[in-house]
């Protein structure tokens, strides 16, 4: 089969939320797009995360991107013809000590100095106004009151369907085995097929480092396996998404009464087999943290748990933007277990950048060039 049988303006490698979002935004700008996914759309990090739509606590470099993405989230139902399960809800990071509260106050002050006012400090009484069931020892918190949460699979599939409605072609179970530049085109050999396009986006998640290295632009992507828990149904007691300052936690009670727990404790990830395994001692720590902060959780039982493979960068912020070595090669990967909320906005940025060659977004902190001398995992 010749490359001309599968030709487009842009090839996207990776069918997670960032690949699907970028494909959609490129199509909105009139580009023809092919998405190659070695498994199925949303199979890995994009489908198994906690679904937090969170600006709270982001790395300072991510804040402008997160703000823009939030604007898209507020209109996500009209944009994608699917509400994605999105609900506006407070995101609150609780402080369990006065020292932690001082840390949160310092962050709030730094954000204010940068011109951002979306994070607000809560004292003991204010945090209980939002979290009446919180433990007595909690002294306050930092909140973004109009953040929220959504359904990861539903959202990723909504981006896929909208992109397909604009002509984007998705090839699942199609692994990019070899990529090379030939003349003005990128040629991708995937199983028995060949694809060509003048532009290429590497959005391959935990496997993106392998692709970048094959193109002589290595990046130290670590495969990690964040773990999640879903509990039995409990009487409703929490309307916010809750984190902790001094230990990992992501906590939210769903409308049906179940509680979803995550926050960063990890299982074991195997990039070669696409599999991840639970580490139950770490899972127990997540459960204990939830009980410590919400004593009502003592009555809960674990209904199911899972983990998934995600790509993490050493500095915990993603690689976003153009290649430092090749024209018309772009990257969007390494979101380090906090990329779900960024998906709509980063996709818009990449769609603009790829279609026009320019962007006003502050992408310098995310350049792949920052790893040019870094040791590889």
From TrEMBL:
InterPro entries: FAD-dep_OxRdtase, FAD/NAD-bd_sf. SUPFAM superfamilies: FAD/NAD(P)-binding domain. Keywords: Oxidoreductase. It holds the Pfam family DAO. GO terms for molecular function: oxidoreductase activity. Transmembrane segments: none annotated. GO terms for cellular component: cytoplasm. Residues 9-352 form the FAD dependent oxidoreductase domain. This is FAD-binding oxidoreductase. It comes from Roseovarius spongiae.
